[in-house]
Design brief:
about 150 residues, mainly alpha, two-stranded antiparallel sheet, about 5% strand
């Protein structure tokens, strides 16, 4: 199998694992009452809560990406045959961590799943449902009455 395809598959699988681990950890922390990203829609702290949640997600995802890179000796530039092996090891490590960390966010976006990097939007739950148009009522006897 082509090493480029293997590298791409490895990135997707590990990024998915990082996103799921981050989501699970932040979910457990929120259930324990240790972590909360909720802020009311009109408060001045809603943007701050969003930024803190995003920062915490990326820090935790970066730590997990570093663990995967070092534990499994992931060398993306070597797998893609860019440069001589071990000539660019520090750059390869930094590149691998960055790709896996940012890839986890993109996997979550692709799957449209909520993750810890995004605070829940309180405004979306407060919007009332509005129905416009023509309403037709049907009586039990089969007669129709139209109302606007």
């Amino acid at each position: 199998m082509d090493t480029g395809i293997q590298a791409a598959a490895m990135i997707v699988i590990i990024s998915f694992a990082i996103d799921r681990i981050c989501g699970g950890v932040f979910f457990l922390l929120s259930m324990a009452g240790v972590w909360s990203t909720e802020a009311s829609a009109g408060s001045a702290d809603s943007a701050g809560a969003q930024n803190r949640a995003k920062l915490a997600y990326y820090i935790f995802a970066g730590v997990l990406a570093a663990v995967f890179v070092f534990a499994f000796n992931i060398s993306m530039l070597d797998a893609l045959k860019i440069g001589e092996p071990y000539q660019h090891k520090p750059v390869d490590i930094a590149f691998g961590i960055l790709v896996l960390m940012c890839g986890s966010d993109q996997v979550a976006t692709l799957l449209k799943s909520p993750h810890a990097g995004k605070a829940p939007d309180a405004r979306s739950a407060e919007k009332p449902i509005e129905v416009t148009g023509k309403l037709t009522l049907v009586e039990q006897t089969g007669q129709r009455a139209a109302r606007e």
